[in-house]
Structures are given as C-alpha cells and as structure tokens.
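Structure ticket #2291
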Amino acid sequence: MSARRRRDLRLAAVLLAPAVLAMVALRVVPAVSAFGESFRHLSLRTGITEFVGLDNYAYLLGSPRFHEVLMTTLLFNLVINPVIVLLSTVLALLLAQKLPAVGVWRSLVFVPAAVPGSVTALIWSTAMQPDGLLNALFKVMGLPAQPFLTSPSQALGSIGVMLAWGAIGYWMLFVIAGLKDIPLAVYEAARIDGAGWWRRLTAITLPLLRRPMAFVLVACTVGSFLAFAPVQILTKGGPEGSTSLLMYDVYMNAYQVGDLGVAQAEVVLLMLLMAVIVAVQFRVLREER
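Resolution: structure written out below.
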C-alpha cells in the first residue's frame, strides 16, 4: 500500500471516528443493553433484580394487551406511511417545477418539519379542541363538530394527521433531490418521441425515483414505529386504548408498571419487527438492474 493511500485512510478514520463513536454510544450500546436486560426482572418499585430467562417474552406474547397494542401499531403504520410517502412525492413533483417563488413555497412546506414534536402536538391539540379552529371551520362549512382526540374512532387518525403534518415537508426534500438526479436528456428524448406528461411520469420519473422513495418509505416507517410524543402529551394511550402504540406501551411498562425487564423485552420485539418490515420493504422496492 502506498504512503498516500495510507495517509488517506488515516484521514478518513479520523473524520469518521466521531460519528462512529456517537453511533456506537447512542445506538449499539443501548441495543445490546436492552437485549441483555430483557432476560432479567428489574423492578423500579422494589429494586429486585433477578434472571428470569424468556419469562418476559412469554408474558408479552401471551398478553392480550400486547396483542392489541401490536395490532394498533401495525394498522397505524399500514395507513400513515403510504400517505406520507404519497403526499411527499406529490408535493416534490409540484415544487420541483419552475414556479414563481418556488423557494418560498418549499420553505413553507418544510417549516412544520422544523417544529419539535411536542410543540406540534400542542398546536394540533389546540386546533382539535371542541371549540378549536377545525370545528370552527367545519361550522362555517355547515358540517357538524368532530370529537377528534376524545373519540376512540378518530383519535388515532388525529395523531396520524399530526405526524404527517410534521413529516411531509421533510421527506419531500429527499424526493426533490432524487428528481434533480434524473438526467434532463432522458426527458428531452421522451418529448421527441411524443411522450406526454403522464407517460413521462410513469415511464421515467417514478421508475428512476425508486431508490430515493425506498429510502423515504423505510425511514418514515422507522419514525412512525417510534412515535411517542403526541400519544404521551395528548391522549395517554386513550381513549379506550385506541392510541396505545408500542413505544408508549414500552414507557408504561417501564415507568408506570415499573418492570424494566418487560419494557426491554418489548423494545427487542419492536426492533425485530422493524427489521423484518424494513427487510420486506427493501426486497419489494429493490431496484432491478
């Protein structure tokens, strides 16, 4: 190996070291710790610590409550993730055009992504009050008032609206970046061949956007599975358990029930579930060569 190559490798190692150390400290170590503690009984109430093997997993897998929380989380992700990806793509296609003041419009769409999740929850909570902004608009349009967060049938959808509002602008930027990577010569050749807007969209744009859209879908899925702040701040898993998602249930097992072992076992199951879903998504959206 030449001296220059060794120097480049050392420089790369020095530049990557802070990010690698941070990832190990913030991701790998907690994951390994959670896996180890999932085989133990760790009570915050009594301070008892003992090895229980697979008992925590058996308790969760045999718990009707865990089954309900799991189904609620899967249903939530099944709906919210495609909606976010679809709306992000539509906005990206629109705002990638040469429109007047397009930079301003992009900034306005992105603003909700810069708002912390807790602030987003409070904003939408105010808007969804019985006498809030949304019901006032419904009244003007002659529509009946809606219960939103206080209704078992509407609360989870309301949480989804909050998350989508904060995520669409963020993921839109990744789709726009993917659009910018598509060579203009491909579109020019399609126009010469007489391809219309719809044909160019379906035959060129969407196929060449498969990779960035796959990234957006996978990252969006991980973010949705880890949703916690709106549930904790607004609904506490209610009404009637309709918004009890997995991350909130982990919090309940750890700090309300006081059993860290069960909570860590639930974290491990959540990581395994996300790994399987992400693997399936990569398989389905894999780019054909």
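Closing remark: Residues 64-284 form a domain with the MetI-like fold fold (CATH 1.10.3720.10).
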